Amino acid sequence: MAMRDIRVVPDPVLRTPCEPIREVDERVRALVEDLLETVDTEGRAGLAANQIGVSLRAFSWNIDDEVGYVLNPTIVELSEDEYQDGEEGCLSVPGLWYPTHRAWYARVEGTDLDGRPVVVEGTELMARCLQHEVDHLDGKLYLDRLERSVRKKAMRALRDQL
């Protein structure tokens, strides 16, 4: 296991959709161990594989003292009538937090290392984390979801950091 460095914008791996995991081999097992170790740090809610430079569909989470992972996650349900607009940040966009519109509830399905079905669901922070991490695996950043005027401000702040 290893604590891995976090890739930050403008690293192109963050904008590349991740490939599905077709076979669980030692490389995938090591990836999951690294995801779990790297996310298990105070202040970290979730971590997608591409954030540590691996373009495979896997992420880990660390919410309310629960650390876990899912392979090949797919969002299968979002609340349609309840939303949240809280501040959101990202390890790959350090130091920038902006109000981001997300569904209040989210449900993700995937598998574990043994191919068994995994269901992860939650509201508030867990829902935000699930949506955020699946976005990463699709090559998207939370900045892409900001309202136009806020996104313009965020992109200016991001350029100033680079």
TrEMBL record:
One of its GO terms (molecular function) is metal ion binding. SUPFAM superfamilies: Peptide deformylase. It catalyses: N-terminal N-formyl-L-methionyl-[peptide] + H2O = N-terminal L-methionyl-[peptide] + formate. Its EC number is 3.5.1.88. Fe cation binds at C90, H132, H136. Pfam families: Pep_deformylase. Keywords: Hydrolase, Iron, Metal-binding, Protein biosynthesis. GO terms for biological process: translation. Binds 1 Fe(2+) ion. Its cofactor is Fe(2+). The active site is at E133. Removes the formyl group from the N-terminal Met of newly synthesized proteins. Requires at least a dipeptide for an efficient rate of reaction. N-terminal L-methionine is a prerequisite for activity but the enzyme has broad specificity at other positions. Belongs to the polypeptide deformylase family. This is Peptide deformylase. It comes from Cellulomonas marina.
